[in-house]
Amino acid sequence: xxxxxxxxxxxxxxxxxxxxxxxxxxxxxxxxxxxxxxxxxxxxxxxxxxxxxxxxxxxxxxxxxxxxxxxxxxxxxxxxxxxxxxxxxxxxxxxxxxxxxxxxxxxxxxxxxxxxxxxxxxxxxxxxxxxxxxxxxxxxxxxxxxxxxxxxxxxxxxxxxxxxxxxxxxxxxxxxxxxxxxxxxxxxxxxxxxxxxxxxxxxxxxxxxxxxxxxxxxxxxxxxxxxxxxxxxxxxxxxxxxxxxxxxxxxxxxxxxxxxxxxxxxxxxxxxxxxxxxxxxxxxxxxxxxxxxxxxxxxxxxxxxxxxxxxxxxxxxxxxxxxxxxxxxxxxxxxxxxxxxxxxxxxxxxxxxxxxxxxxxxxxxxxxxxxxxxxxxxxxxxxxxxxxxxxxxxxxxxxxxxxxxxxxxxxxxxxxxxxxxxxxxxxxxxxxxxxxxxxxxxxxxxxxxxxxxxxxxxxxxxxxxxxxxxxxxxxxxxxxxxxxxxxxxxxxxxxxxxxxxxxxxxxxxxxxxxxxxxxxxxxxxxxxxxxxxxxxxxxxxxxxxxxxxxxxxxxxxxxxxxxxxxxxxxxxxxxxxxxxxxxxxxxxxxxxxxxxxxxxxxxxxxxxxxxxxxxxxxxxxxxxxxxxxxxxxxxxxxxxxxxxxxxxxxxxxxxxxxxxxxxxxxxxxxxxxxxxxxxxxxxxxxxxxxxxxxxxxxxxxxxxxxxxxxxxxxxxxxxxxxxxxxxxxxxxxxxxxxxxxxxxxxxxxxxxxxxxxxxxxxxxxxxxxxxxxxxxxxxxxxxxxxxxxxxxxxxxxxxxxxxxxxxxxxxxxxxxxxxxxxxxxxxxxxxxxxxxxxxxxxxxxxxxxxxxxxxxxxxxxxxxxxxxxxxxxxxxxxxxxxxxxxxxxxxxxxxxxxxxxxx
Length: 903
What we know:
- The protein is built from 29 helices and 32 strands.
- The protein has a nine-stranded mixed beta sheet, sandwiched between helices.
- A hairpin with a 2-residue loop joins strand 9 and strand 10.
- It starts with a helix and ends in a 6-residue tail after the last helix.
- The longest helix has 21 residues, at 201-221.
- The protein is α/β, with parallel strands linked by helices.
- Helix 12 (345-357) packs across helix 15 (448-457), helix 13 (376-389) crosses helix 17 (524-536) and helix 15 (448-457) packs across helix 16 (473-482).
- The radius of gyration is 34 Å and the shape is elongated.
- Keywords: Glycosyltransferase, Phosphoprotein, Transferase.
- It catalyses: D-glucose 6-phosphate + UDP-alpha-D-glucose = alpha,alpha-trehalose 6-phosphate + UDP + H(+).
């Protein structure tokens, strides 16, 4: 039976999984799909939260896992999840069983060096081998016992659509800035081309299903209260939602090893929001460069409306009360492994052989995978241009290009290979001489020691990838040119250590190599000049650049990267078990709301009970987003709202005020049928106690000459920002940019804020930014101040409030919540007065209570109206108006109350 959590997760996928065939693929079913769980070697109990809505059979399966989850006794554990395990699996020569060994070149294996010694590491991923169904349990147990690895076995038909169909034909090209302009490559079932094709819904479904398989394997081995989970790369971007749905407080990190494209590219992906929301279920998301992180943040802003904040150097996204950290840290090389390679016995004779082969020549080296983004042919064309433009290098300069075997196939790759072969033939034909071939092209597997030997003799390494996530080739070259510490080999390159790099500006390592010559690989002439400059540079300059690079590479190795990520993940999760968390939403819309444990939903029965026994009540209501939805086109109050307010106002024990940022004329018109309702308009600058009373201002007569200074500045930005507008109030000016381009509008708002603060520096005004607005208003005007005036006025009447309810939904209301909480301590209200400060929406707030939406607000007010006594009438509101003028709130209090703005 397919678990309900899985079907919910796929609500937004809208696909037919029946087309994929049986979920388990004929015997390879796992988790809720029927795979026999592997035996455990440790039996320390753990706790697994149950899925909402599970039936008895599903709950029994969950509990069986909880009873024997392995755990790192007495310490935390890191579960590293990736598409492939850092293990090499080979069938034994006799065909009986398997042999396994670590893959020393795997980044996942190397990252263990940066993880604390007391933290156990367990790997979850697939094997690069086809293990028959009958042997999978035995292989799983062997890998768990000997390597602490838990293998995931994907059925072939799912793996093909998952890896070749979606990862390699949708995500990988798109993340490398390739758009599917034609449908010729859209059939993911017939080709494993690295090129891109039109979006294939069934491939997306397979991607989600494959992530579900990885999730089931993690569930088998996890102890959610002790373990960290570190997910790697674009193959598993849906996994965080599966994990977060099952374990609300699980500590999850994610690192993307590929580029993340600009929002203009990423937004073409039909499942763009699903993937973004899945990643936001992590606690920390890592990128190699700021550019990749900036593109991700831009996508979150444009597509989800989530803005980031930077605090003390850390970037974070506030996502339903959880702070999702953004980590920017390029990965490094494994220094120990490279230095061990430099000491290998084979290196010396290989180095001597290459030195003899290229004696008297200047060697430029390229080491690239054979794929469509590495720009190998652009490199060859640039080298050809250099030989033609600078004839002095003819017969002297050699480009050695090592092309690692292609991992895929397809027409695009075949075309690139044909171009490369043609370029090699042409260059060697035009510039070759007896005993001299300007291009040496190596398209075979090259051993580590041979590659190190090539690095050692090369005067310059050239990387011309048109797009690459990181690319560690320049780092490896720098370490090899430095040589092994203490090495005295006769074949070692003599003289001061030096190296030169010509690198594409479109690769991840480029920003960290400040001494490299950065080029645009599409500009053949500029790349050719870069090559010439690199090999013509004075020796002392080469040495200085090398020393600078080596200091960085040797200190920012893979262990440094891993340690830094783990430390930031621990920091991001430090409050996990202190806060109140619960999950909401279906499918990829699932998210965890995390709030302070003292922040609870307002219980209607509790507030009704307190309301009934009180004798002097203050009820302060925001309008937009509180009594009417923010998304409502018709902003006028409904007949139901007007009726409820009239009933509340008619009770002699109630003082009811509408406290809003809207102008007084609009509010006066909308609530003309509520004669006893008090209204505080424009955040309290204008105030009246009933319909029959005149409007009062909160301060003495002000000079609004500053408006003539602020308005030209706002007009300037309005003309330059399409979709923006100015709202002119009697006491304030508000610039709105909600309908402008999100990125541009936000940028213009920040610049306008600085501009206005400079222009109005000597004026008695406050300039604040809010939700898609910039507002200029007089100092000392705020909802918090007007709330204090109302409560103080009730006290002046001789009967302190013994029930206070204030409700709002935006940042300006936070000032009211904070001020009222302070008032409760200053004897302005009766002792032990119940304060119901309530925000609308499940979000962090200075209020102690929340209601989900305007419907719940109206329902709660209706419940209060039902127990009110509208027959007992008095002129209490009129009495209050007489005492308000006697209040004198000092400038210091006014200034402290002026903190936030909003509607």
